[in-house]
Amino acid sequence: MGDLGLKEAFASITSGAILNALLVVVVASAIIVAIQKVFPKLAGKVGGKPRLYLLALVPLLRLLIIVVTIVIVVPILIEPTFENMVAIFGALGLAIGFALKDYANSLIAGIVTLYEMPYRPGDWIEVDGQYGEVRSIGARTAEILTPDDSIVIIPHSRLWNALISNGNDGTDNLMCVAEFHLKPGHDVSAVLSLLRDVAFTCPMTRTWMPVSVVAANEPWGMRYRVKAYPLEPRDQFRFVTDLTARGARVLAAEGIGFTPYVVQGVS
User: Fold this and answer.
1) How many of the other CB atoms lie within 10 Å of CB of 202?
2) Which residue among 59, 194, 241, 256 is least packed, with the fewest CB closer than 10 Å?
């Protein structure tokens, strides 16, 4: 009965129908390619939330175009009766179940990703020790650009069993931390004030966001962590470098020395 249903479903396919279906697919593909090229370029010219919104629209529009294309193409090729649909989707289900198990797993996870949005284009995430900016989200994988300018492909199926750290979670607020390991025997209150001033006077600091300095007593001395937000998430590494350089210069001027080493496993 299944074979008979498939034969009946494909009986209406003609050369004209195939050409029309191919034309729809080509137009849809051209639109998708245009979106994937134009939107990131527009996002690169703007900053803040508009940039994140433009990048996040790319996978959503691509998924919408694919769904619309399928809805248009199927009736062109096959008469959309109940029996035909059952036969077609039954065959697709078997193919996915036996031949495309891993791909289907990532594909389903990709749909879940677009719905739950644990990460979006423009987010800075860490998955399995890989940290970088989400550049694109496909049906099966996501691409992140690491600080070393490497592209890492992450299958969406990692969602099922991996911890995902998202630094900015769809916003343009990303906290950065600059650490200072200092010798003991200094005025802690003075250092806290100095490092706070360093953060507020840095030209890349979002001064309207919280700035804090946290101190901890360690066996080797004192550890200070300056927590602040850069103007743009993509400037985070220059921002931390600038905070570190400014802090080191101010501390050296006050005669406060850095510890020569940090005990392994304690830092």
Assistant:
1) 21
2) 241
The residues, ordered by sequence, that sit 6+ positions from 24 with a Cβ below 8 Å of its Cβ are: 69, 72, 73, 76
The residue among 39, 30, 84 whose CA lies nearest residue 60 is 39
Kindly indicate the confidence band of residue 82, based on its pLDDT and cuts at 50, 70 and 90.
low
User: What's the pLDDT score for residue 25?
Assistant: 85
Q: Which pLDDT score, from 0 to 100, does residue 95 have?
A: 56
| Judgement on whether residues 149 and 235 belong to the same structural domain of the protein | no
Query: 9 with 88: CB under 8 angstroms?
Result: yes
Q: Which residues span the domain enclosing 247? A: 176-253
Long-range contacts of 39-42 (CB under 8 A, 24+ apart): 40/135, 40/136
The answer to whether position 267 is within a domain reads: no
Query: For residue range 92-128, what is the model confidence (pLDDT) as tens digits?
Result: 666 555 545 555 555 566 566 666 677 888 889 988 8
Q: 3-class SS at 113?
A: helix
Domain assignment present for 118: no
Distance, CA of 50 to CA of 39 (rounded, Å): 11
The pLDDT, as a whole number, for residue 81 is: 60
**Measured between alpha carbons, how far is residue 166 from residues 73, 175, 209, 248, 261 in Å?**
38, 11, 18, 29, 31
In a domain, 262, yes or no: no
Q: Is the residue at 193 inside a domain? A: yes
